[in-house]
């Protein structure tokens, strides 16, 4: 919407009382919409651009070619949404009640699914809330512009939730939501790291956050040491090609054999580096019903999930982040889990039923799993990088 104003007193600066009050309203609206925290920052991502380029140069992104695509947009939000001068960053807790991280991992016949994926897909819910926030901001700023005779051209705003080339963790850190931990996730001293992030890019010149969260990781290296596949090259640097979340979600091809045993019963993602983080003792449980576990996925047997037909898979993952990997990779991941499970004829029988699956990739992983079930060799629950 384009608005023409009377002769103005100039563009408002971020010290203008009305703009300071507007920024406070943005925080208030965020809380009303279910976000636990909202911050505002500018578009200068500085050192984070260099870190990303080094990470890409080292090919740590594997098959995630979208990390390379539109890198100019990722580095400059004003190119993604023209005229952007501010980014609103918001976080929303997703940890369900009684998450049972360790309990499920210690039951190797159970399927471990990353806690963020147990409920409904977060993208639509958070994007809708952010769109509402942006609309409130547009309406209020339009009113203020008319009242103070500020020049106002087209208001340009757009919400994003893990769906566009946005350096969301860098933005969240600059906006004061926390610091990027050694496990490369955003940490908050009062909320840990079990939360989703979302952004609104806007050309409204809001006052920005001027308080940067202190990095409180200290000498702790628990997250680096616990990783089953030794995916951390160094603190703050993740080799995604070794990360279980990448291997079970992003990787479309066969899972390299060296990683199959350390994957254990993790069939969709991995939370080990979060579960062990001392700061997550402060994590809050979600207040969103949509993030509560569905279809008993928080405590399901590997065999039960492996015997789902494709129709059952599609029905039971409707509206879930799990749907994105598709049935073929779902069976691939479960086959790995079954290969790592305690020796059982019931497991072998379930695997045999999939020996002639149309997918060669599924066949390969089923064959490996059957061999593991019949092997007397002890499984490698943890491996180290060799280079």
Considering the chains and any ligands shown, give keywords for the structure.
four-stranded antiparallel sheet, disordered N terminus, 10% strand, alpha+beta, 387 residues, elongated, 10 strands, single chain
Provide an overview of this structure.
With 387 residues, this protein is α+β, with helices and mostly antiparallel strands. It has two domains: 17-202, no CATH class; 222-284 and 296-374, no CATH class. Helix content is 38%, strand content 10%. The chain is built from 16 helices and ten strands. It has helices spanning 17-32, 47-57, 71-75, 77-80, 101-105, 122-148, 168-174, 222-226, 244-250, 257-263, 272-275, 302-306, 310-316, 326-340, 345-352, 360-374, and strands at 37-41, 86-93, 112-113, 157-160, 179-180, 186-187, 195-202, 232-234, 237-238, 266-268. It has a four-stranded antiparallel beta sheet with strand order 1-2-7-4, with helices on both faces. A two-stranded parallel ribbon has the order 3-10. Strands 5-6 form a two-stranded antiparallel sheet. Strand 8 (232-234) and strand 9 form a beta hairpin. Helix 14 (326-340) packs parallel to helix 16 and helix 15 (345-352) runs antiparallel to helix 16 (360-374). The longest helix has 27 residues, at 122-148. The termini are far apart.
């Amino acid at each position: 919407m384009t608005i023409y104003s009377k002769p103005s007193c100039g563009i408002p600066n971020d010290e203008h009382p009305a703009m300071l009050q507007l920024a406070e309203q943005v925080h208030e609206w965020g809380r009303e919409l279910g976000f636990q925290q909202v911050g505002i920052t500018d578009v200068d991502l500085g050192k984070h651009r260099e870190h990303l380029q080094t990470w890409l140069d080292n090919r740590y992104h594997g098959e995630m070619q979208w990390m390379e695509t539109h890198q100019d947009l990722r580095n400059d939000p004003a190119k993604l949404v023209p005229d952007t001068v501010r980014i609103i960053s918001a976080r929303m807790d997703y940890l369900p009640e009684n998450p049972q991280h360790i309990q499920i991992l210690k039951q190797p016949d159970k399927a471990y699914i990353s806690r963020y994926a147990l409920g409904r897909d977060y993208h639509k819910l958070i994007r809708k809330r952010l769109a509402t926030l942006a609309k409130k901001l547009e309406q209020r700023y339009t009113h203020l512009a008319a009242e103070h005779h500020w020049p106002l051209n087209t208001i340009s705003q757009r919400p994003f939730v893990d769906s566009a080339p946005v350096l969301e963790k860098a933005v969240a850190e600059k906006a004061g939501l926390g610091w990027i931990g050694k496990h490369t996730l955003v940490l908050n001293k009062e909320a840990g790291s079990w939360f989703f992030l979302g952004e609104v890019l806007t050309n409204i010149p809001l006052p920005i956050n001027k308080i940067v969260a202190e990095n409180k990781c200290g000498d702790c290296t628990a997250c680096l040491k616990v990783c089953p596949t030794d995916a951390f090259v160094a603190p703050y640097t993740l080799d995604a090609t070794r990360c279980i979340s990448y291997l079970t979600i992003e990787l479309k091809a066969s899972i390299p054999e060296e990683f199959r045993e350390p994957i254990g019963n993790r069939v969709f993602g991995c939370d080990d580096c979060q579960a062990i983080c001392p700061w997550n003792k402060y994590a809050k449980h979600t207040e969103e019903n949509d993030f509560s576990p569905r279809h008993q996925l928080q405590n399901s047997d590997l065999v039960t999930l492996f015997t789902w037909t494709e129709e059952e898979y599609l029905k039971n993952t409707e509206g879930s982040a799990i749907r994105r990997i598709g049935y073929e990779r779902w069976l691939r991941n479960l086959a790995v889990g079954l290969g790592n499970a305690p020796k059982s004829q019931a497991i072998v029988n379930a695997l045999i039923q999939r020996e002639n699956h149309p997918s060669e990739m599924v066949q390969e992983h089923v064959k490996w799993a059957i061999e593991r079930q019949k092997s007397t060799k002890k499984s490698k629950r943890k491996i180290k990088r060799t280079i």
